[in-house]
Design a protein that fits this description.
The complex is a heterotrimer of chains A (216), B (299) and C (485).
Chain A lengths: L15 H25 L4 H10 L1 H33 L14 H14 L14 H25 L1 H4 L6 H30 L10 H4 L6
Chain B lengths: L1 H32 L20 H6 L7 H5 L22 H4 L10 H9 L1 H10 L4 H4 L10 H4 L11 H13 L3 H9 L1 H8 L8 H5 L10 H9 L26 H46 L1
Chain C lengths: L2 H34 L4 H5 L7 H15 L5 E4 L2 E4 L4 H5 L8 H4 L37 H5 L5 E3 L6 E3 L62 H21 L11 H16 L3 H14 L2 H6 L1 H30 L5 H6 L4 H28 L8 H28 L3 H4 L5 H10 L4 H22 L7 H15 L8
Antiparallel strand pairs in C: 1-2, 3-4
Helix pairs in contact in C: 7-17, 9-18, 11-13, 13-14, 14-16, 14-17
Chain lengths: 216, 299, 485
Amino acid sequence: MQATSITPDAPIRFSVLHRLLHLVVMFGFTGLAVTGLSLGLSSTAPARGFMWLIGGASHAAWLHRCCAVVTYGCVVIHAFWFLYYKFGLAGAWTGPDSIVPSLKDLKDFKHHLAYFFGLEKTPPRFDKFSYMEKIEYWALFIGMNTMGITGLVLWYPECFTRYLPGFFVNLAQVLHFYEALLAIVVKFFIHIGMVHFRPEIYPADTSIFTGRSHTE
Amino acid sequence: MNRHILQSGFRKIYRLYFGIALAATALILIGICGKAGAAILPPSGTGSDWFIDMNRFALSAHAALKCDDCHGSMTEDGLKHTDEKRPDFLKQSATRAYDYARCRRCHELSFKRYLEGGHAKALREEKDPSKEKKQVTGEKIMAPTCGECHASHYERSGLSRVAVGQRMLGACASCHPANAASYRNNIHGRVGIDLGNPKAAFCTDCHGAHTVDSLKNPQTALLACKRCHPKAETEFTGIVIHASLESVPAADAPKKAEVIWIHRIRWIALAVLALSLAFFVAHSFLWLLREIHDKLRKH
Amino acid sequence: MSAKGWMGTAIAGAVIILMGLAGLSLVSAETDALETGKPVCLDCHRQPNIHTNEGVATANAFCNGCHAKPECRRTVDGKAVSLQVPVSAAKENPHHYSACIQCHTDVARSPHKSQTGAQCRVCHSVHGEGTAHAPHLRVDCQACHFKSKFVELDPKNSNVKLAHIDLESKPISLADHTLTDVNDLKSCEKCHFSDNRIGAPAAVLPSKSALCILCHNSPLSMGHPIFGAAFFIFLVGVLATLRFWYLGSVHGEENSLHRKISLSSETIWNIIFSRQIFSLLKMAVLDIIFQRRILKESVGRWSMHSLIFTAILIRFLLSLFTAVIFYFHPNGDWAPALIDKNSPFTAFTNDLLGLFILLGILWAVVQRFIIKPVHVATEKQDNIALLIIGTLILLGFFLEGARILVTGIPAEMAGYSFIGYPLSKILSIFGLSWKSIYPYMWYAHGIVGALFVAYLPFGKMRHIFNTPLTYILEEVSGVRKEKRI
């Protein structure tokens, strides 16, 4: 139960801005996932039941777009923060504290795999962000923008078809659906599972809410 | 002290939140397996139709009519009803044999629109002996007359927009199954048929009531789009509603190419999805196993 | 009264009389229709309620209007085929009191032609594994239950159905509705002979046994005597083991077996209704289902053991689930899909789990005979267990391949058996008469299966019972965790 051993003066891992963004995105993303899946799986009973509960497809569309604006707003705020951190605060682009992938991540990955198969006794010592966290971060960054752009095309098809061939709207719809499916499975199962339910951390890692790191 | 209370409060909240989120996702995923039957009602006129179900007839739009109001005396053309000596006795479809000009007595305007439309045109071509060769391809689908789409004994009046739309899809699907399937996969079909939203477009909203336009001409199609999307311009009609290879006519090569591209992108997206998930799942599973093993060792 | 007034009265009276006459003539017209027997539309065309005896009689009278007459026939290839349904035969038929349109649901229409055939499953459910093996799900009901000897493969869905022609391609009548006595196994021989054209094995095979439920959906009967013998040996083994356990002392009691049993059952009772049951259940999930203690030893061993154990466990649970679903809801969507070995889910799951077991066995074999690490002590008993399970799975896969080959299921359906289908292709290279070999393969798989069950309480596989029991005893008697193996 290491989670309870957090001391008030443990080093700060997430700043207030990051905690707030995470909390907002958490609710925004869930809202997006639930309303979106209910449309994507509209022929199934649970989806129809949920749609009935929230007042039909029009309400779901409104809710989905609200959540999208809020969630994407967080992405934009984060991007501004990232620029401020790198240029304003002169944060290093490389090195152990950076989120930018480096060669050490490849070595860590090889080491970690060896650890999985029992060829190494101990897991690698990760920098501030492990390679998994970096993959998740950049996948999410790319994914959020894909979802944002394709979502915008689907929101305003009249406007976009002035500049693009009509079937691009179909392509946007296809990409939007599969990217969403990937994000939902990865976030709800892999992210939550690996962040909270690993034996090292179980039953919970509260550092994203308290901001305090509990390691070392 | 306060911070500790705050922490435990956070933990309770987020546990509740994760519980709800996981349960909702799981419910919807379970839904994929137990895919509930679609909300479509079957067209009400098929099946055994020698016998009239009087309960349903009494509720139908035609309940006030007597048999001979529509069927006449059944001794027309000098032939008696159920004449076993007739060569086509029991062999001809009753729906095809009926003279639908009789419907015109009450439904003049609808009948006229039907005569202007695509189905009537197809019927004229079918009856034209000079074009007979064109018709013999695969399953014998004949151009529909009134009775193919409307179950005249049981069709009810005064139904809601959604109920009419759902029945309509069932009727259209009996000859255009691929188009019905691709429509159901499209946003309009999902919102209208599955989720029962009256604002969605149903078949005749775009293709016209009884005029059945195929909407091959972009300008005609644009008029249909503009009913709900007033800001649409010509290229807006390039959005593929019936996005499956089966529902695009063979002659429409450019649209076919577009649908093929949609399929390709779908396969690529699916492959990316599958590969990413395989990586994440396998990586997490191995990691968990090793960590549980290590933890068990320590104790 | 003036003359004008009289005129008015006279006209009014005349009108009334005329109206009365008109009314009278109307009434007489209606009585005419009833008396002259001129049919009114709804005499025939009112839908009868076939859930009542009267409705059945009315409905059948409509059909018999033609189908009771000897001249009711059609002409196929210049030959007259009778469509007369013999009424005398129908009286001996269990369906005599059902309406024709109860089963022939889509014939009462013009054109008078059926798309779907007779619908047995409106009233009857599919047979379970005990009555007919799962491959019979692709056989039409009438093919077995009707007397006609001529069957064929339907090119549309490769189902077995009654043929409309005899062996010399002459059209035959199928109007006889008398049913065959299917309990007489002779009736099976219309398909199950060596030169049949419909892909049936050359011999009639017995049903599966309840013992097979460890891996397959099975009936609640013992089946062939081999399985009975296996079960008997299994019971003897279990009893001998119990007897062996009770040789020791129980709570200080050394001699009386009766006292030993009553003391130990008392203990079990007290544990079940104590708080300890919760820690026992937790232990059962973690140590027995999830195999925590093996994972503690090594990830590799856990993976190998889980491949075998978990796969068998899932197959067992799936079979139980199928049995329950079939019992409560045989006509739903799930029961036939779970029973049918060709349905995508069942075919894929069975092959995947079988593959897992085989991989686990192979891994164990490689460990024991090739890598030979120090900590793995190879005993004869272990090898026997590996041999039996390995043979069982291999025979199972070959049997599946042979089944797919013999029954000739098209690739788009059989493809979900991702091991069975390629195997069937490999088997087809050898131009053997697989129809005749299939029954021997079935018996071989069945005998090894019986051997597996019989061997359970004796050799290595005793650990399936012993190890969990040891865990439970440790948990109950509170052996300290450090001392655990």
